[in-house]
Amino acid sequence: MAAGIKASGQLDFGLIYCEEPAVGAGVFTTNLVKAAPVLLGRQRVPSGHVRGVVANSGCANACTGEAGLRDAERLLAETGRLLKVAPEDLLPASTGVIGERLPLEKMLAALPELVSGLSPEKAPSFARAIMTTDTFPKVAERVLSLPQGEVRLLGIAKGAGMIAPNMATMLGFILTDARLEESELEGILRSAVETSFNRITVDGDTSTNDTVYALASGASGCALGGTGREDFVRLFNEVCQELAYLIVKDGEGATKTVRIRVEGAANEEEALLMARTVANSLLVKTAFFGEDPNWGRVLAALGRSGASFDPYEVDLFIDDVAIVRNGLSLGKEAEERAHRVMQKSEFTLTILLKQGKAVAEMLTCDLSYDYVKINAEYRT
Amino acid sequence: MAAGIKASGQLDFGLIYCEEPAVGAGVFTTNLVKAAPVLLGRQRVPSGHVRGVVANSGCANACTGEAGLRDAERLLAETGRLLKVAPEDLLPASTGVIGERLPLEKMLAALPELVSGLSPEKAPSFARAIMTTDTFPKVAERVLSLPQGEVRLLGIAKGAGMIAPNMATMLGFILTDARLEESELEGILRSAVETSFNRITVDGDTSTNDTVYALASGASGCALGGTGREDFVRLFNEVCQELAYLIVKDGEGATKTVRIRVEGAANEEEALLMARTVANSLLVKTAFFGEDPNWGRVLAALGRSGASFDPYEVDLFIDDVAIVRNGLSLGKEAEERAHRVMQKSEFTLTILLKQGKAVAEMLTCDLSYDYVKINAEYRT
Questions:
Q1: A28: three-class secondary structure by DSSP
Q2: Which of these, A204, B122, B179, B181, is most buried using a 10 Å CB contact count?
Q3: By the 8 A CB rule, do A192 and A176 touch?
């Protein structure tokens, strides 16, 4: 619903309710500066009896001190009273402007309508209620058919920059009716986040509010064993990867989504370090915007990554077009072909190192005028 | 002179000549991908008998393999023959497009004119001959008066991004007629670079060609002892800092030069880490462009820097306007005053941590539409 937190009057307040206690897990920002909902939320999960999540956009409740913590607690306490559940079993999530207090009066006034309006059909509205500079809602669903029944997965996320303009930023919610232990869900979530939300970049900044919650209600009655568990993990990963992809696709000002794939690295750590450095390089990102197969910038970014490799063994490809072999240019004609591939809205830059067998991927976007425009606008 | 290396016909070829063997030192890019002139130059200094530097813009001679090394050696050999000095006593420096071979025929054809035209009055032309996307030449001079005579310092640099558009990038030349030992000059240069060229950022990228050479001819006849040496080091540092300042001022697309000053950090390493992270944050840099005292972005950047501090002890200032005290906003009126300060072309962001006594500074610039425009233009 719209509680008036956003001046625009758009949806800004949402509630996820678990009819029965759910198993809950969470992963949170690694930023030392943590928002009040992050400080509170990470005390409360993992848990075997989560009853819901209270989420808002328009205000991050970050850099708000003790007062901000009390605001979040007060909001959860009132929600618990209305839902008739223990406030400690509710989780908070906020996104929006940093440094401002929650408009608590407005939110408390809106709570009864939020609670009475709860409905499983409203997931799309929830996805809209957590948007800030997002241009579209982000939802991913999967169903797993098992001999013992069906298990459903619903993922909802928001985010359009690692930090949106003064917004604090990425939120994700993965809901399932599978029956899982706390530690099991925690493990699945951590591992899925590592290869999805932790492998994307828009501007290399890390928010004070990043949070992904996973809730497993057990309502399907299906426990997961053997191949069922494997399939579940695969679908869980797919949901996270689809949401992560949607966040990059909606990257602030982005016109292109680019997969950076490092192959043949000495080890996985270095592969990821190199993929991450290339994915975050302003010069590489502006070259993507300019549709310029500017391989010198890619080699320069690899060279400053800290990983060790032989520059004269590197091959580079834009999709399947080779532009560099053993560190040397394949010529203007190859670059012209690569330039044509880069006119597409999605392509892959493959970096083949020939140092070993490790592989890593990052998803990134280009850096356009609009990124600067969106982020340079004065807040008031 | 203009040797035709640049298609534009502008100055692109320069020579520094030492009439008597000079003491030479150098510092070079830390990028694993090193250009041919860097690979060659770092074998040749420190040295007690440098006779000159051959420099060009328009072509970085980077990512050119064995052939690129042979090109650079050939160029120095021919220059040595014309100057009647040993080729091993000449140093190379190149800047420009990565991945292309030097146009050696043009350069060899131009060499006799370059050598016969040598003159102490041509330092300004040399400064122009090494420019790429620079919009002005960068020169800094100092004179030190000692009881035993005068010592002169001349610094020349180029650079407009840590990497300019597909250019490989920063070059610096510090010339003096002081009489110094190799190891002494090397120490003075390394220490000066650490607090000047290593404390600036335009886009956080590191070039394949970054090089600073220092040459001390001893022609003044003045050796440096006691306070003379201290004064010399101070002036040497000033020359480097002035050149570094000029590079940021000429940052690609930059409209503002901003000093990031971290005070009260637990130690110098963390102070520098924090200053560097803030100075490189796209969100902070776009906020500078928007003249927005967006302190949430500064705190978020500090928080992801990896340094440890208490967010609720941080004070922030734009010049002398306080906008945050103990991690909390000082309100809209303070931000409005800070916004007015940010309309200037230069200001300081001071971050006061209250964790200890360490201080560090970085010089950075804002991120504007023009940065994207300059770097997104297709090369051909």
A1: strand
A2: A204
A3: no
**Cα gap A281→B206, rounded to integer Å:** 10
Which chain A residue is nearest to residue B376, measuring alpha carbons?
Answer: A290
CA distances from B300 to A34, A98, B282, B339, B365 (A): 9, 9, 12, 19, 19
Q: What is this model's ipTM? A: 0.83
Q: What is the CATH T-level fold of the domain B257-376, as seen in this structure?
A: Ubiquitin-like (UB roll) (3.10.20)
The radius of gyration of chain B from alpha carbons, rounded to an integer in Å, stands at 22
**What does the pLDDT read at residue B380?**
43
Q: Are A168 and A62 in contact (CB under 8 A)?
A: yes
Candidates A29, A64, A79, A169; catalytic one: A169
If chain A, 380 residues long, is cut into consecutive pieces of 10 residues, what is the mean pLDDT of each piece?
95 96 93 94 95 96 95 98 98 92 97 96 96 92 91 92 66 93 94 89 81 93 87 94 91 92 96 94 92 93 93 96 95 96 97 97 91 74
Q: Where are the alpha helices (DSSP H) in A226-309?
A: 227-249, 268-280, 282-289, 295-304
Where are the domains positioned within chain B? 13-249, 257-376
Sign, Cα dihedral of A298, A303, A305, A308: positive
Cβ-defined contact of A304 to B98 (cutoff 8 Å): no
**Predicted TM-score (pTM) of this structure:** 0.85
- Tell me which residue has tokens 């719209």: A2
The rounded distance, in Å, linking the Cα atoms of B329 and A230 is 49
Q: Which of B34, B165, B329 sits opposite A99 (nearest CB)?
A: B329
Q: How far is CA A246 from CA A176, A192, A365, in A?
A: 20, 16, 11
pLDDT in tens, A231-287: 999 999 999 999 999 999 988 889 999 999 999 999 999 999 999 999 999 889 999
Low-confidence ranges of chain B (pLDDT < 50): 380
**Between chains, do B99 and A295 touch, taking CB under 8 Å as contact?**
yes
Residue A169 annotated among the catalytic residues of the structure: yes
- pLDDT value at residue A91: 97
Radius of gyration of chain A (CA): 22
- d(CA B61, nearest CA chain A) in Å: 11
Note the Cα B43 to chain centre separation in Å. Answer: 21
DSSP string for residues in A138-170: EEEEEEEEETTEEEEEEEEEE-SSSS-TTEE--
**Under CATH, domain A13-249 is a member of which superfamily?**
L-amino peptidase D-ALA esterase/amidase (3.60.70.12)
Q: Which of B299, B302, B308 to mutate to test the interface with A (most CBs of A within 10 A)?
A: B299
